[in-house]
Amino acid sequence: MDGRLHQQGRTEGGRRGPGQDRELRRALRAVYFAIAALRHAPRSPRVSQAISEASSAVATLPAGFVAEALYRLIGTIEDCHRAGTVGSTRLDERWRTATAAVRLAG
Questions:
Q1: Rounded to 10 degrees, what is the CA torsion of 48, 66, 4, 6?
Q2: C-beta atoms surrounding 71 within 10 Å
Q3: Can you give the pTM of this predicted structure?
Q4: CA-to-CA distance for 37 and 86, rounded, in angstroms?
Q5: What's the angle, vertex CA 43, arms to CA 51 and CA 30, rounded to 5?
Q6: What is the largest CA-CA distance in the chain?
Q7: DSSP of 43-100, one letter per residue?
Q8: Distance CA 71, CA 63 (A)
Q9: How far apart are CA 89 and CA 91, in angstroms?
Q10: pLDDT of 28-59, one tens digit each?
Q11: In angstroms, rounded to a whole number, what is the distance separating the alpha carbons of residues 101 and 82?
């Protein structure tokens, strides 16, 4: 990358379309539920299911920094699940990065 932030999923006038907003909300909700499942019972099979649902939801987003930040967050959720921990410093950092990416894209 050349250091510039590339806007994704934009339509004329600099705004996302209603379908893209809906997909983004769906992806964010799925990732949030994966984190909630992890924090509730880190070794539960429900966490694996939530991770799968979150990955599927993020896959519907246009390629770009928001999708990349969410994929990295999902990977960290999966790492915590495998380790049986409810969270980590890296999970907190990835959450902040993902929320910042969403704000920047908005």
A1: 130
A2: 18
A3: 0.81
A4: 9
A5: 20
A6: 46
A7: T-HHHHHHHHHHHHHHHTSPSSHHHHHHHHHHHHHHHHHHHT-S--HHHHHHHHHHHH
A8: 11
A9: 5
A10: 999 999 999 999 999 999 999 999 999 999 99
A11: 26
The CA-to-CA distance between both ends of the chain, in Å, stands at: 21
Token duo for residue 30: 């799925």
Distance CA 51, CA 13 (A): 34
Rounded-to-integer distance, Cα 43 and Cα 70, Å: 21
Q: Give residue 106's pLDDT band: very low, low, confident or very high (50, 70, 90).
A: confident
Count of other CB atoms within 10 angstroms of residue 77: 27
Residue type, 90: R
